[in-house]
Design a protein that fits this description.
heterodimer; A: 113 residues; mainly beta; seven-stranded mixed beta sheet; four-stranded antiparallel beta sheet; 11 strands; B: 110 residues; five-stranded mixed beta sheet; 45% strand
């Protein structure tokens, strides 16, 4: 009964590959997000989706594309992976602009070799 | 969203109250103060939030000064499992996500 679940938990891949990370929430929240945490531990927002509309794109390279098949899912597709994409990626969800808090997944550790 | 300032790290003895300060002198009237924490290798966890009144829940208490320029998160009886990075975040409404700073690394000593 995990609230926000991400798969896979670990992903090791070679430069140049294309990969996807999946996220699902069963909280009935209306907005979902992707965050990136780099090696220096800074957490930065990448995208948010509300009712299938992209709300934010924080100067993320267009190799990254969020895709939301429905309100409960927000997947992250990454094309032509680079070494600098290695990080932990967190999915999150919220309701009504996050006034009652955000719920985060447990993260996907992506390593590009 | 208003900027926040937190100490880089703090120590606290197990069983004692941990008091984590946060300055947010540029906070505006409609902005809330949120606290999250991140235990090593896990996703951030919501702790508590408030506007101007003090708040308490099963995890912690939040004390906001009358002028709202600073706040303190209190963990009443810290345990080793409370060792984490604690983030103080100020934000208004809107679905634009949370902006995380560097936070305070709280270390609970046995």
């Amino acid at each position: 009964d995990t609230a926000v679940s991400q798969t896979p938990k670990y992903l090791v891949t070679q430069m140049g590959n294309d990969k996807s990370i999946k996220c699902e929430q069963n909280l009935g929240h209306d907005t979902m997000y992707w965050y990136k945490q780099d090696s220096k531990k800074f957490l930065k927002i990448m995208f948010s989706y509300n009712n299938k509309e992209l709300i934010i794109n924080e100067t993320v390279p267009n190799r990254f594309s969020p895709k939301s098949p429905d309100k409960a899912h927000l997947n992250l597709h990454i094309n032509s992976l680079e070494l600098g994409d290695s990080a932990v990626y967190f999915c999150a969800s919220s309701q009504d602009g996050g006034g009652r808090g955000y719920t985060f997944g447990s993260g996907t550790r992506l390593t590009v070799v | 969203d208003a900027k926040t300032t937190q100490p880089t790290s703090m120590d606290c003895a197990e069983g004692r109250a941990a008091n984590l300060p946060c300055n947010h002198s540029t906070i505006s009237g409609n902005e809330y103060v949120y606290w999250y924490r991140q235990i090593h290798s896990q996703g951030p966890q919501y702790i508590i939030h408030g506007l101007k009144n003090n708040e308490t829940n099963e995890m912690a208490s939040l004390i906001i000064t009358e002028d709202r320029k600073s706040s303190t998160l209190i963990l009443p009886h810290a345990t080793l499992r409370d060792t984490a990075v604690y983030y103080c975040i100020v934000r208004g409404g809107g679905a634009d996500g949370l902006t995380f700073g560097k936070g305070t690394h709280l270390i609970i000593q046995p």
